[in-house]
Specification:
Distance between the termini: 124 Å
Helix content: over 70%
Radius of gyration: 43 Å
Shape: elongated
Structural class: mainly alpha
Order of helices and strands: HHHHHHHEEHHHHHHHHHH
Strand content: under 5%
Number of strands: 2
Strand order of the largest sheet: 1-2
Length: about 375
């Protein structure tokens, strides 16, 4: 394996040595700051070179979001046939040129550099010259400590080996545990942020299930394998996790996925700043939604009996009727006495007129409505 990856050993060691030469102008050349910052700078350089892959990852994520309605239709159509559902999903990916595994491209691209750095630090721990790191640089790297832990020390190293590197077992294990916890927590937060803020959760897809699985798998993997990583490799991986987290936060805030929670938050910020104005169609849609919501909150339609009584109970209506009739009797004594005689007189007049005009109503085929009686005072 050393023969296959020896070109990468040379490349990684050369980059570290160049950064170490620069930081030696500021810090002691044997200090952990000079060597630790050299590893951090190696990470930054690699991640800058991987920006095109990161852009490709974003585009693939956008394509996956655009395909979600079609994916949901496939799930509904073949929900009883999981094999056919998977075949149709793969066919859709092939037709649209979408790769669900594009989110893993940055990690896969970093793997050779990660392995090379691991081997370089392992050679330093074994007091072996590697790449462009000669014997003087090897001795300087062995003296470098980060918070009391040598760069080449591991959590599982024996006490004799750690003492040979000029450190104590307690210092090494405390530093490695803290770095492993920070590394796993940063990885979990990065993946959780992607799932909760930059994904349309209204549509369930295999892509989302994959991302949810990675959210728990990667931190566990880092915690398990981290105990076998040298301190320098932990510095490398913690730095790349922090870079990924910051880069993702920037992208989610500036260019979120349409339909996600981050997209809605960005739209609200732009509206508050007056940078975007809603289209008339959007305003009309919001007004219609608000009217529909208000209609749903209105009380139920009253029955006919309640409408006739004004929505009050029957007993209350009867009481009001009795009270009204009592007030009429007390307030209009003479008018109430004349009312039966007037009604009788109107009925007799209507009968006489009806007999005289009966033939005209029969001939015309129309019924003449009753005329409204004149007011008693006018008569």
């Amino acid at each position: 394996m050393d023969t296959i990856l020896s070109p990468l050993y040379i490349a990684v060691s050369w980059i570290i040595v160049q950064f170490h030469s620069f930081y030696s102008l500021i810090f002691d050349k044997d200090s952990g700051a000079a060597w630790g910052l050299s590893i951090v700078s190696l990470v930054v350089l690699i991640r800058i070179c991987l920006i095109p892959l990161f852009v490709k990852q974003i585009k693939s994520t956008r394509n996956m979001q655009a395909l979600q309605p079609k994916m949901k239709a496939i799930q509904e159509r073949y929900k009883s046939d999981k094999q056919r559902q998977s075949e149709e999903m793969m066919k859709l990916y092939k037709e649209t040129g979408t790769n669900p595994l594009s989110s893993c491209l940055p990690i896969l691209a970093q793997s050779p550099f990660f392995i090379s750095l691991y081997q370089v630090l392992n050679h330093i721990a074994q007091n072996k010259v590697v790449g462009v790191i000669d014997q003087p640089l090897l001795e300087s790297a062995q003296k470098a400590h980060i918070f009391g832990a040598p760069l080449a020390a591991k959590f599982m190293d024996s006490a004799e080996k750690i003492q040979s590197l000029g450190a104590s077992v307690v210092d090494v294990r405390v530093v490695t545990i803290v770095m492993i916890v920070l590394m796993s927590a940063s990885q979990f937060y990065t993946q959780r942020q992607l799932m909760t803020k930059n994904v349309d959760l209204t549509v369930k897809t295999p892509f989302m299930q994959q991302q949810k699985m990675l959210m728990y798998v990667f931190p566990i993997m880092f915690a398990v394998f981290g105990i076998n990583f040298p301190v320098g490799v932990l510095v490398y991986w913690l730095t790349t996790n922090v870079w990924t987290m910051g880069q993702q936060m920037f992208v989610i805030r500036r260019n979120p996925t349409p339909g996600s929670k981050a997209f809605e938050e960005r739209q609200e910020r732009l509206r508050a700043a007056g940078k975007i104005v809603e289209a008339p169609a959007e305003i009309a849609a919001k007004q219609a939604a608000e009217e529909a919501r208000q209609n749903r909150q209105q009380p139920k339609r009253q029955t006919k009996s309640k409408r006739q009584t004004g929505g009050a109970p029957a007993g209350g209506a009867q009481n009001r009727t009795r009270a009204g009739s009592a007030s009429d009797d007390s307030g209009s004594g003479e008018g109430a006495a004349k009312k039966p005689s007037l009604e009788k007189k109107d009925a007799q007049e209507g009968k006489g007129k009806g007999g005289a005009s009966g033939s005209r109503t029969t001939k015309s085929g129309q019924r003449k409505g009753q005329q409204r009686p004149k007011h008693p005072t006018k008569k």
